[in-house]
Design goal:
It is a single chain. With about 400 residues, the chain is of the alpha/beta class. Helices cover about 45% and strands about 15% of the residues. The strands form 4 sheets. Strands 4-5-6-7-10-11-12-13 form an 8-stranded parallel β-barrel, surrounded by 7 helices. Helix 5 packs parallel to helix 19 and helix 15 crosses helix 16. The relative contact order is 0.20. The mean pLDDT is about 95.
Length: about 400
C-alpha cells in the first residue's frame, strides 16, 4: 500500500504543493479538507500570507558557479538538513491513520524538526519515537494548569527538545467553513443532528474505511483529565476559552520546562520585545495561518519589524504562507532563521499519509536548492536582504 502511495506522489503527478492540495481534496471528506484548507471569517489573512511573497522579488547574482549548495543550518543549536520545521497541526489523525506519527517519521527521515500539537490524536511518546530526530512540543493549557504540567513532564521525559507556547488563541477563530460543513454536528454523536452533513463522509469510502480501522473518532491523547483519562474529541472552542495563556503564565512554564521555549503567535514589535525580555529562546512570527484574527498583516510583512525589534538577541522563525522553496529564501533574506509550515505538509498527509508528507518536504527542498543555484548563492547562511527587493513601506520605521 505504501509503495503504491509513494509512486502516486512522484513526478509528473505531483510537482508542487498545490498538486498535493488537490490530491488531499479528492481523498478527504469536505469537513476534514476544509479544516486544513480554511481560515477565519473572510480568509483575507489566509490569502495575504501567500500573496505577500509575491511582493518581494529576487535579485540574482548571475554567471556564478553553484554546483553545490549547502542547505544545512542550526535552529536553537540543533543541526537540521534544511531551514524547515513541520509546524504543529492538530487532529492529524483525522487526515490519515496515525497521522502525527507519519509526519514525525517523514520529518526524521528528512533530517528536520517536527513540532507536535497538544491537540494530537497520537501519544507524544510514540511521536517522539517515530521521528528519531529532535521534536518540539506545542503547548495549549487545555484541561487546566495541572493537565498542562503533566504534559510538560511527559514531553521532557520523552526527549522533546523545545516547548512551543502559542499565545494567539484566547478563543478559536470564526472559521465559517467548519460551521457550514457541520463540524460540530458531526462530532455530536446524535444521528438526527449529524444526518444533514453525513453524506460528505459517505462519498469518501476509502477515507472512511481507514478512519474506522484506525479506531474512529480520536481522543486527545496528550490532554489527560484527572479521573477521566484522555479528553474526548469534541468542540474545543469552550476548552480554549477556558485556557488562555498570558504573559504571567510564562513564569511557571519556564520553571516547569528547563529547555528552550519558543513563543508562537508574534505579530508586533512590542510583543516581540516582551517575549524576549521574559526569556524566550525563539519567536515565531505567526498569525496561525489566518485561522484566528482575520485582517491582521501577513507574517512576511511583519517579519522585518520583528527582526528589527529584537536584533540578534533571539532567533526568529516565520510561519504562514510557505508553498515554494523561494518563499523560504525570501523569509531567510528578511531575517528568519528558519520557517515553519503546516498546510503544505498537511495537504501531503491528507493525500497519502507519510508518503505525502515526504513528498511535500522533498518539493520544498528541491525548490530551495534550485532557487539558491539560480540566485548564485552557495549556502542558506549567505542569504541576506541584498538578494531581495522589498517594498519600501515594509522597512519604514
Amino acid at each position: 500500500m505504501m509503495n503504491h502511495l509513494s509512486k502516486a506522489m512522484q513526478s509528473p503527478r505531483v510537482l508542487n504543493i498545490e498538486d498535493l492540495r488537490r490530491a488531499a481534496k479528492r481523498r478527504l471528506p469536505r469537513v476534514v479538507f476544509d479544516y486544513i484548507d480554511g481560515g477565519a471569517e473572510d480568509e483575507s489573512t489566509l490569502r495575504a500570507n501567500c500573496r505577500a511573497f509575491e511582493a518581494v522579488t529576487l535579485r540574482p547574482r548571475c554567471a556564478v558557479a553553484t554546483s553545490v549548495c549547502n542547505l544545512q543550518t542550526t535552529v536553537l543549536g540543533t543541526e537540521v538538513m534544511m531551514p524547515l520545521i513541520l509546524a504543529p497541526v492538530g487532529s492529524c489523525r483525522l487526515m490519515y491513520p496515525r497521522g502525527e506519527e507519519a509526519a514525525a517519521r517523514a520529518a526524521g527521515e528528512a533530517g528536520i524538526i517536527c513540532a507536535l500539537s497538544t491537540l494530537s490524536g497520537c501519544r507524544l511518546e510514540e511521536v517522539a519515537a517515530a521521528s528519531r530526530r529532535p521534536v518540539w512540543y506545542q503547548l495549549y493549557l487545555v484541561g487546566g494548569r495541572d493537565c498542562a504540567l503533566a504534559g510538560i513532564q511527559r514531553a521532557q521525559k520523552a526527549g522533546f527538545s523545545a516547548l512551543i507556547v502559542t499565545i494567539d488563541t484566547p478563543v478559536a477563530g470564526f472559521r465559517e467553513r467548519d460551521l457550514r460543513n457541520g463540524a460540530k454536528e458531526l462530532l455530536s454523536g446524535n444521528l438526527g443532528t449529524m444526518l444533514p452533513f453525513v453524506n460528505q463522509i459517505l462519498v469518501r469510502p476509502r477515507w472512511l474505511a481507514a478512519f474506522l480501522a484506525d479506531g474512529g473518532l480520536m481522543k486527545f491523547e496528550n490532554v489527560v483529565l484527572s479521573g477521566k483519562g484522555p479528553m474526548h474529541y469534541a468542540d474545543v472552542t469552550a476548552a480554549l476559552e477556558q485556557s488562555v495563556i498570558t504573559w504571567e503564565d510564562l513564569k511557571w512554564i519556564r520553571q516547569a520546562w528547563n529547555r528552550p521555549i519558543v513563543i508562537k503567535g508574534i505579530h508586533t514589535e512590542e510583543d516581540a520585545r516582551r517575549a524576549t525580555d521574559l526569556g524566550a529562546d525563539a519567536l515565531v512570527v505567526s498569525n496561525h495561518g489566518g485561522r484566528q484574527l482575520d485582517g491582521v498583516a501577513s507574517t512576511l510583512r511583519v517579519l522585518p519589524e520583528v527582526v528589527s525589534a529584537v536584533g540578534d538577541r533571539i532567533e526568529v522563525l516565520l510561519d504562514g504562507g510557505i508553498r515554494r522553496g523561494s518563499d523560504i529564501v525570501k523569509a531567510l533574506c528578511l531575517g528568519a532563521r528558519a520557517v515553519m509550515t503546516g498546510r503544505a505538509y498537511a495537504y501531503g498527509l491528507g493525500a497519502a499519509g507519510g508518503a505525502g508528507v515526504s513528498r511535500a518536504i522533498e518539493i520544498l527542498r528541491s525548490d530551495l536548492l534550485r532557487t539558491l543555484k539560480l540566485l548564485g548563492c552557495m549556502s542558506v547562511a549567505e542569504l541576506d536582504r541584498s538578494y531581495v527587493n522589498v517594498p519600501r513601506d515594509w522597512l519604514a520605521k
